[in-house]
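Extended Data, panel c. Modelled sequence:
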Amino acid sequence: MATARQRIWGWWFYDWASQPYNTLLLTFIFGPYFAEIARGYYMGTGMEEEAAKAAAQAYWGFGLTIASVIIAVLAPILGAIADGTGRRLIWVWIFSVFYVVGAYALWWVAPGGEASTLAWAVIFFGIGFIGMEFTTIFTNALMPTLTDHDDIGKISGSGFAFGYLGGLVALIIMLVLFAESATTGKTLIGLDPIFALDAEAREGTRAVGPFSALWYVVFMIPFFLWVKEPKMPGGQLHIGAALGSLVELLRSLKFRKSLLAYLTSSLFYRDALNALYGFGGVYASNVLDWSITQIGVFGILGGITAMLASWVGGRLDNRFGPRFVIGWSIVVLILVCTVIVGMTRDSLWGIAMDPASSMPDIIFYICGGLIGAAGGPLQAASRTMLVRHTTPDHATEAFGLFALSGKVASFISPFLIALVSHFSQSARIGISPVILLFALGLILLIWVNPKGEQI
């Protein structure tokens, strides 16, 4: 029988195990690599370089849009079913398979392929992305059973800090031993990729898929050993009853003004943040012409600040409440996005810079550190705030609805970025919709009760 402390550590290990999908695949390794091969494909069809960059970003955006639509439709339904049966861990097992299969299959996304290569890349990435999102929903739903509400903020923040540490360690391993530069064929410290991987075929970079899958399998062991499902009301699977419960929850929102305001606020700000993570590496590759290794160093900086800030944010959450942490995090992210949209290699909002200097790179590194420092606490405080609006027996349903509220904007934000990138023919201008989404989230936060419904 696992102790209470072991259950908490086991729950934290999910964050450690799953973080590489965001850190390595979505943002810093595979996302930029996809941008490279997609850009090369479009230029091979006769497109100008800038148009090819925008087309690559748009393709990635439409792929994320489709995956997010699937999550948005299924998340609240599966959450209601899980609460109705009183079983959540079985869903973690099922969607872990999606995670592992989708991640591992990215090994076969080789450079110089046809249009079908891009399609399969997005399909397999989407399968793993769906697995990651759904396992997150069901593990988050276990959080209210770990401790009383007084410690939830600290546990949530420490979990995100531990997860970011895992992502940071995984990123360093990839950069030092696997991911090669497209120009030199060497890793960050000048080595050939290990295991005699072919640098010319980008096998070191492509290994990020199998590496992430194996990382997840190994580090989920503490979770499955120590996190046991508490006995809760439930029984046989009744789809009708589960959907009825979901409909009842949706109808109740008109009487739960704080929860409605919070879900609507988070609909915008969480998915603006997801868009930053999903397109940050692609932006660095397209706008600043950064290599995979440069983007990886950017990721290390962001991971360090996210880890430290998540830990500090958990303490601030306990003292001042999650709404305080969420509000200030959004303000920082709005300022950072304003800088990013206005920057090229030769200017910052009309102020000239020497394109040969390192100033644009330094500014973007600072932005990366701030994104990590604000994004980590924002995510941790967000799930704490939801816990303040639900009860343990309805937690999965609530987190499913939380995922739905996020994914409504999650397929809108990549769609808007893809659309603006397509019509502006600019990868830089294409990022601009996230500023509006963050601003809407901040405004709507005014109507959220800092104490939620736990009064």
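Residues 4-447 form a domain with the Growth Hormone; Chain: A; fold (CATH 1.20.1250.20). This feature is highlighted in the accompanying rendering.
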